[in-house]
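Tokens for chain A. Residues wanted.
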């Protein structure tokens, strides 16, 4: 943390000065943004702060095992109140968080941006963005360690959830010795890692696997770029009687492929876009730059983008139309 010592102290000072605090997760929440939000909110409450936890979308059923998940609200009215401090977690931008417009209703507040996305443009008044961290939960873990705050079993569970989900169970390229060390410490504080993994990662049903089967059967190798890609259409979601969430994790799963340096999974989303997920295990490839060409972003080893269009597959040729 010493590299970020000054920022850590700044955040601590801003919290000390504030009484009312709004903590914001990104829309379409995952285990990291929810775990980070709830863990940090718990710590702030322990310090006597009045805390509101917000996420544009409801907490998915999958994450309703998290302690205090019911405290996350999606009620827009929270933006009609005043906050001394607003903390956005795990969001590369306010647009990504889904609060770009909502937040304009707030006045006279300090904005703290805590994240691990390399593409984060540092939109806060104070920015703690650690691109080498596996997850936002890991960034928050480091903050709490720096502030010498004791982590109870609930906070340990919340932070572990962020680390497990963003590393795909400690196997994807975001996994580092720091996150493993942190996870070991969280186990000691009462987090049940295997249970959290089972709930968050082991949630596959038959329809889900049928969809994954379609994606696997279409794997194509592009020699020129040493890339393997596959795709999923809206028709696939319909026919497998499943939704877009079921495609989550395919790109993380495929990164174990030895045949290519880059993995690309294309998915038609219901809003008329094509979403691309890029993965690599190579240290000398920066996928956030590649995604940037298509208006996306992310991390060096895992990034994504969205383009308007539909996928058309004919005579072994995949086209975007
Ligand atoms: Mn994250």
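Reply:
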């Amino acid at each position: 943390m010493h590299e970020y010592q000054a920022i850590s102290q700044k955040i601590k000072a801003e919290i000390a000065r504030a009484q009312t605090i709004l903590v914001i997760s990104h829309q379409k929440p995952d285990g990291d943004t929810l775990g980070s939000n709830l863990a940090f909110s718990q710590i702030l409450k322990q310090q006597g702060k009045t805390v509101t936890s917000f996420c544009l979308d409801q907490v998915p059923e999958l994450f309703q095992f998290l302690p205090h998940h019911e405290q996350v609200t999606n009620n827009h009215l929270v933006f009609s109140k005043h906050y001394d401090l607003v903390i956005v977690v795990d969001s590369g931008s306010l647009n990504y968080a889904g609060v770009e417009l909502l937040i304009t209703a707030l006045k006279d507040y300090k904005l703290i941006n805590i994240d691990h996305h390399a593409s984060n443009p540092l939109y806060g008044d104070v920015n703690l963005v650690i691109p080498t961290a596996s997850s936002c939960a890991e960034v928050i873990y480091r903050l709490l360690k720096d502030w010498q705050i004791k982590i109870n079993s609930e906070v340990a569970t919340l932070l572990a959830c962020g680390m497990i989900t963003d590393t795909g169970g400690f196997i994807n390229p975001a996994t580092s010795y720091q996150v493993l060390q942190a996870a070991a410490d969280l186990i000691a504080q009462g987090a049940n890692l295997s249970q959290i993994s089972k709930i968050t990662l082991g949630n596959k049903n038959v329809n889900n696997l049928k969809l994954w089967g379609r994606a696997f059967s279409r794997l194509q190798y592009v020699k020129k770029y040493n890339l393997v890609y596959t795709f999923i259409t809206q028709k696939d979601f319909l026919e497998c009687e499943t939704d877009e969430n079921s495609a989550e994790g395919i790109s993380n799963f495929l990164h174990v492929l030895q045949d290519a340096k880059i993995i690309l999974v294309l998915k038609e989303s219901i809003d008329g876009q094509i979403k691309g997920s890029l993965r690599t295990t190579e240290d000398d490839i920066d996928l956030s730059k590649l995604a940037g060409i298509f208006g996306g972003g992310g991390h060096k080893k895992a990034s994504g983008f969205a383009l308007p269009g539909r996928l058309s597959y004919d005579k072994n040729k995949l086209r975007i139309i």
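Residues 32, 90, 116, 135-136, 166 surround manganese (II) ion (CB under 6 Å). DSSP finds eleven helices and 14 strands in the chain.
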